[in-house]
Amino acid sequence: MRLITLFSVFILCSPTFAHFPQNTTFKVFQFPDSHVPQMDGDDADWSMVPDEYFYDSSHHRGMVFEYSIDSTGTENRVLVPDTLAVPDPTDFDIRRTAVGWNKTSNRLYFITEVYDDVWRFKKDVVDSLDTYHSRMTGAFVHGSDIWEIVIDADHGGEKVVNFADWQEAPEVEFRHRSAYAQNYHLYMPPLNGYYWHWLWGKAMWTKEERYSAMGWQGDVEHLSSGTVTYETYLTPFDDLHPEGPHLSRKHHLTEGAVIGLSWAYLDADDSDEVFDDFWMHSHHPKMYCSAEYLSDFELMPIEEGLFEGP
After folding, report:
1. In what order do the strands lie in the sheet with 3-7?
2. Alpha-carbon gap, residue 245 to 239, rounded angstroms
3. Which of 68, 142, 237, 239 is the most exposed place for a label (fewest CB within 10 A)?
4. In 3-state terms, the chain is what percent helix, strand and coil (to 5)?
5. Rounded distance, CA 153 to CA 163, Å?
C-alpha cells in the first residue's frame, strides 16, 4: 500500500496586507429583486450577465508539488514555493464562473461551469464530516471534488484559522475559526447525492436554507467525465458565531463596496483521501487560511438597460 504524507499544503499563514492579484478589482454583478437566480443549476438566470463578470481557466493558477519517498516507503508531497501551474483543459476546465449579489436578500450568488475528466463524489464517512474532529483537523474532507469559497465581506483581512493552538485551546480556535472570514468547502457534485456544505469551523447551522443553498446539473456519475453547472448562495458575516445566528452579526452588502473574496477548485482524480490539484482564482496558495490573500471584488450597481420593460 502506498502511503502519502502531505507537507506544506496547509502552510502557516503569516499575512502581510495585500490582495491578490495586486492592483486588480473584479466585479460582482447586481441582480434586481425581479431577477434573483434560483438555485437549480440552470444558467438561464445568468443569461443577461455581461461577459466581463465571468472568469474562466485563464484566470486561475494551481499549486505545484514535488514528490519523494522516505526510508519508510512513505510518499511525501511538498509544495514548490513561488511556482504556479496552468490548468490543462483536458483534465480540469473552468469554463466560466461568476458572482452576483442582491441588496434585499443580502446574499452573494455564485455559478460555475466546470469540465472534469474524473468526477469523484462518493464517500463512506460523510457523517464524519460534521464531527468537531473533522471541523478542527480537516479530517475526511479531501479526496472529492470541491469548490472552496472564502468570503471576507468587511474587507478586514482577518485570518480564517490559526487563532490559537487548537490542541491547547480548542475552544478559542473554534470560537474564531471562520468567524470574520468564512471558508466554505462545497462538494461538487454533492457527496453521495446530498452532502454539499462544509464550513471550516464549528458552526453547523450555516447550511440552513436561510443562509445558504445549492443546485446543480450535469450528466455525470462517480468517476466519470463530463460537465457540471453548479449554483450556490452564501450569506456574508462580520462575525459568525459557532453557537448560532442569534450571536452572529451579518454583513450588510452595499453598492460600491469592495469585499475580499476568492475561491479554489480542489480536483481529486486519483485518491479518496487527497486532492491532485488546487486551482486558485487569487493565485495565492494561502487564500484558504487568511483573507489577506483574497482578491478584491466590487459590488456593482445594476447594469443600465438590462432590465428595462414590463
Report:
1. 3-7, 74-79, 65-69
2. 10
3. 68
4. 15, 35, 50
5. 19
Return d(Cα 273, Cα 276) in angstroms, integer: 10
Using CA of residue 145, residue 89, residue 224, residue 229, what is the dihedral sign? positive
Residues 6+ apart with CB under 8 A from 194: none
Q: And the C-alpha cell for 8?
A: 506544506
**Beta-carbon contacts of residue 283 (< 8 Å; ≥ 6 apart):** 20, 21, 60, 61, 84
Task: Record the cell numbers describing residue 78, joined without a space.
Answer: 511538498
Backbone angles phi, psi at 205, to 5 degrees: -90, -10
User: Strand locations in the chain, DSSP E?
Assistant: 3-7, 25-30, 61-62, 65-69, 74-79, 92-102, 107-116, 146-152, 182-191, 195-199, 212-217, 226-234, 237-239, 249-250, 258-267, 277-280, 295-299
Q: Closest Cα to residue 129, out of 118, 138, 121?
A: 138
Nearest Cα neighbor of 214 from 237, 257, 185 is: 185
The β-bridge partners of 186 are 147, 197
Q: What is the pLDDT of residues 168-209, one digit of tens each?
A: 999 999 999 999 999 999 999 999 999 999 999 999 999 999
Q: Model confidence over 217-257: pLDDT tens digits?
A: 999 999 999 999 999 999 999 999 999 999 999 999 999 99
* Euclidean distance between CA atoms 185 and 213, whole angstroms: 13
Cell numbers standing for residue 278? 488546487
- Return the domain boundaries, the chain: 3-299
3-299 carries CATH number 1.10.3380.30: no
Cell 462518493 locates to 122
